[in-house]
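Can you make up a protein sequence with its backbone structure tokens?

===
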Amino acid sequence: LAHPRSSKMAEDGDDGVMGRQLGGRKTKVKNKSAAERQITAEQMLRESMERGGMDASFRPPKRVITDHQELSELRLRKRKEFEDTLRRNRLSMGVWAQYALWEASQKEFERARSIFERALDVDYRNHSIWLKYAEMEMKNRFVNHARNVWDRAVTLLPRVDQFWYKFAYMEEMLGNVAGARQIYERWMKWAPGKNAWNTYIKFEVRRRNIPRARSIYERMLITHTELETYLKFAKFENKHGKREYARLVYERALKELAEEAHREEFFVSFAKFEESCKEYDRARVIYKYALDNVPKEEAQRLYEMYSSFEKKHGTRETVEDVILSKRRFQYEEEIKKDPLNYDVWFDYIRLEESKGKKSSVREVYERAISNVPPVAEKRFWKRYIFLYISYAIYEELEAKDPEKARAVWRHCLEQIPHKHFTFAKVWVMAARFEVRQKDLAAARKLLGTAIGKCPKEKLFKTYIELELQLVEIDRCRKIYEKYLEFMPENCKAWVKYAELEGSLQELERARAIFEMAVNQETLDMPEMLWKAFIDFEIKNKAHSRVRALYDRLLKRTKHVRVWISRAQFEASLNEVKAARSVFKEADTYFKAQQETGKEERVMLVESWLDFETNYGSNKTVEEVRKRLPRRVKNQRLVHGASEDGTDSYYEEYYDYIFPDEDKKQNTFKLLEMARKWKKQKTDE
């Protein structure tokens, strides 16, 4: 069947090719130019396939066996080929299966079984070998052999569901219902998947044994406690006219699954069932409960079903209740527009807390704290952090779940960017929470971590307060050292540290701390530190040290209160002369200051007068009283901001004139009057 174009190609072909085709004889080609119509090898192959030439060339020849001897030779050769192949590749399960099925096709069933057994000895976990073995037995109606194979398969590989399916199906097709049921029971002991249980139930339904199917559902609920199982069970009971049983199944699901049953599909199915039973009040209660417990983003269909139900079977009031439930959805819409509006989140949380449903409250809290401020600036984080604080307090006080509260505090601390800023309030509240839970190690760890990451005064004070309550003095000292190392200018810290040592009667340590403090280059409140140091020495009756401290302090500052305090100290010791000398020395100092020291001198003289009233005599009182200044009202020019002085003005003020200054002023006035009189005479 040569191609029509092949003759043309033969005529115009290559000399060498034609020579080989004709047994070596070369043929001269008359026309070596290209043919007018070209054809490719691909096109030739496609045309040959279309005309069936390729199939005919590859079709194996039919062999007709005429006698028994020839058949035996064929079988021997075929077996030798299979055995040689298996000797080369013993693990090729496909060859084993072909070998056994070929023997079965030759009606050599014993040989086929032997080959299958040899294959199982090699790899009994191979599923296909068992399947082909059993199918071979069933195909040839060896029922008992097939039972034996299936029994061995499910015993050795009980987790292969296909074996159980085919085994039970075979028994059912044979009419052996008891045997099939026994197989299912053996299978169920292995707690298989849901499909296996459903197959068993369908088997019993086909046998019209509904009570037994119901008991299988009950056993299935023990193994597969899932919402899907309960829904199928309820539909099964409803389908077979047992509505009371179906309702009980729904109620069991809600009770046993708890929060897992709070899904839209469950409540919709339950409500539709009650609606089909014309139990409209029950359906309404189910819808309301569902809307309160199902997550809002998953309850859109539920809300639509409830609205449709109320429009069908409800009253005006119930329809209005449905409309009011839109409040949650309004919050959802506002949050979608601006998820960083934390005020809306707080309102939403209060709404859920008023309902008292823990899962809903937690869900809203989790959604709220997932909206982290995009900018690492503290002013944007203040409102956000209060969400965490409110969440943790709710878990601890309302939900009574300390582990969840601890997780909230931990997550909050992980969320804060401590490299940029921190919130000491959060660290302190988390540590106090651990103290309330009687976990002191965790509280110490939190405060230690806080001081290491972001040392702040409030953290140090809280840590010290905790250790003081636990009477851990050594720990307090270490914390104070870290505190002062971080803030050496903080006078309050120095004073508190020294007071701690003083309360422990460690006077030398306290005195050394005060000495270190007053020798610091910069202090935020040095007057408080010196006063505390002096009070400490007074309390311990170290009077010589007190005088030395006053002397050191007066070298640094000449403040009037220091002078007065020094004099009052001497007076408290009944050292009247020493106190009086202090007052005199101070008065001399402030007198030399003239105008700048008038206010201080007034305070000093008044305090001196009080001292003489209490400790002095009438004579000394009169002497001091004569030192009191006179208060007079004067005017002074105040220059404004303009350069030309147009906005300058006079203001009144009170001035103090001491007796020693009054005499000088009187002399000055007399000279001024004499000067004016002389000028007047000259003019005349």
DSSP finds 37 helices and two strands in the chain. The CA atoms of residues 4 and 152 lie 64 Å apart. Strands lie at 630-638, 649-657.
